[in-house]
Amino acid sequence: MKHRTKLLLAGLGLGAVIIAGCSSGASAVETVAPADAAQIITTQTDEIILDIRTPDEFSQGVIEGAINIDFYDSDFADQLDALDKDARYVVYCRSGSRSGQARATFEELGFTNVTEIDGGIANWYNDGLPVVLP
Question: Residue 47: how many CB atoms within 10 A of its CB?
Answer without folding.
Answer: 18
